């Protein structure tokens, strides 16, 4: 099994509206993984804990086969449970309302990937860095169908965030037309829902995004 460098490339995020049942979710994620992801995030805002565990565990197994870390959105307890169950590559992504990064680092250990939402704010990035984050996510940079009301951010912010020395994620409306622009502005990881899972075959979508990055 090849273990890829998770710090650079396409970061796909699932969406329960686009991928409503287990079979659709798993097939789409298998396809995206085959296209060559750096990271996959399981994002499901439902309160159905049993479904969230079942789906996340299924994705964790697929991710492990591809050497790609699975990141659980919002839910440290679910990430801890999956790791206890043997899914060692599982990490967590926490927004500003999603609990303590320090606690997540204590709970998951030094090697786990822990992501932090920093919106358009370098002060939040500094705090996240101090608290032990593995990457810093900035956005929204473009118009997002998935989260239209996310606070906007300027691409210039990405260069300013280089000082933290952590991988920078660009999120919010990232697509094949702007992914190169976000990379050139400084983002190592390009996070997207719609450009991977919105339409068409996820594998081809990921490959196309990767080609844009490689050519740029
Ligand atoms: C890679 C990445 N960046 C930002 C977010 C947004 O997190 P958050 O602000 O907690 O919002 P929700 O995703 O929970 O709605 C993310 N999920 N992933
Ligand atoms: C989950 C999320 N967080 C954002 C932020 O700016 O913090 S934007 C966003 C949605 C990303 O989906 P799409 O690629 O379809 O725009
Ligand atoms: Mg959140």
From TrEMBL:
Pfam families: TMP-TENI (PF02581). Keywords: Magnesium, Metal-binding, Thiamine biosynthesis, Transferase. Its cofactor is Mg(2+). Signal peptide: none annotated. The keyword Ligase does not apply. Gene3D superfamilies: Aldolase class I. One of its GO terms (molecular function) is thiamine-phosphate diphosphorylase activity. Its EC number is 2.5.1.3. It catalyses: 4-methyl-5-(2-phosphooxyethyl)-thiazole + 4-amino-2-methyl-5-(diphosphooxymethyl)pyrimidine + H(+) = thiamine phosphate + diphosphate; 2-(2-carboxy-4-methylthiazol-5-yl)ethyl phosphate + 4-amino-2-methyl-5-(diphosphooxymethyl)pyrimidine + 2 H(+) = thiamine phosphate + CO2 + diphosphate; 2-[(2R,5Z)-2-carboxy-4-methylthiazol-5(2H)-ylidene]ethyl phosphate + 4-amino-2-methyl-5-(diphosphooxymethyl)pyrimidine + 2 H(+) = thiamine phosphate + CO2 + diphosphate. InterPro entries: Aldolase_TIM, ThiamineP_synth_sf, ThiamineP_synth_TenI, TMP_synthase. Binds 1 Mg(2+) ion per subunit. CDD domains: TMP_TenI (cd00564). Mg(2+) binds at residues 74, 98. Residues 10-196 form the Thiamine phosphate synthase/TenI domain. Pathway: Cofactor biosynthesis; thiamine diphosphate biosynthesis; thiamine phosphate from 4-amino-2-methyl-5-diphosphomethylpyrimidine and 4-methyl-5-(2-phosphoethyl)-thiazole: step 1/1. NCBIfam families: thiE (TIGR00693). Condenses 4-methyl-5-(beta-hydroxyethyl)thiazole monophosphate (THZ-P) and 2-methyl-4-amino-5-hydroxymethyl pyrimidine pyrophosphate (HMP-PP) to form thiamine monophosphate (TMP). Belongs to the thiamine-phosphate synthase family. This is Thiamine-phosphate synthase. It comes from Modicisalibacter tunisiensis. The lineage of its organism: Bacteria, Pseudomonadati, Pseudomonadota, Gammaproteobacteria, Oceanospirillales.
